[in-house]
Backbone:
């Protein structure tokens, strides 16, 4: 994997702001030729710097307005038990993010559902009926004051930057 130079960083920054830019428009914004920009973006995708290109939808407008942040503690924390739990939550589309964490609970999940009844059904499917789940602690968002997807590229340093 190659390191990022200043042009790579400018490309990544612009794509974080607006991934729908045409290659021509992106090239203009980062002060590069269109062919150079196209090659760079392809390399950034191939090398895994760009993991996924998506549209971020409005959960409220689509009727999925309940966000739950859920802490999960397992009875048994051996690797095979953690992997089994991750496989279980990966199959559930309402679970948007799953993190192994330390210290504290074993996992933190970000869940997006329509309403409390939907959350209750999901919690029963994933947590209550799962023998290895010891504790579930749920928090429900009443207001989202910030939501960002951008990584601050200027603050990063290290072998991949």
Residues:
């Amino acid at each position: 994997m190659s390191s990022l130079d200043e042009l790579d960083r400018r490309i990544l920054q612009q794509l974080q702001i607006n991934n729908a830019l045409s290659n021509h428009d992106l090239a203009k914004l980062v002060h590069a030729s269109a062919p150079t920009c196209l090659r760079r973006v392809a390399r950034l995708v191939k090398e895994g710097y760009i993991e996924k290109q998506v549209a971020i939808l409005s959960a409220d407008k689509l009727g999925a307005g309940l966000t739950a942040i859920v802490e999960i503690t397992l009875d048994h924390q051996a690797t095979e038990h953690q992997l089994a739990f991750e496989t279980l939550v990966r199959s559930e589309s309402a679970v948007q993010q799953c993190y192994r964490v330390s210290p504290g609970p074993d996992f933190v999940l970000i869940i997006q559902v329509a309403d409390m009844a939907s959350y209750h059904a999901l919690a029963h499917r994933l947590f209550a009926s799962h023998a290895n789940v010891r504790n579930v602690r749920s928090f429900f968002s009443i207001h989202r004051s910030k939501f960002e997807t951008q990584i601050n590229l200027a603050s990063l340093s290290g072998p991949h930057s």
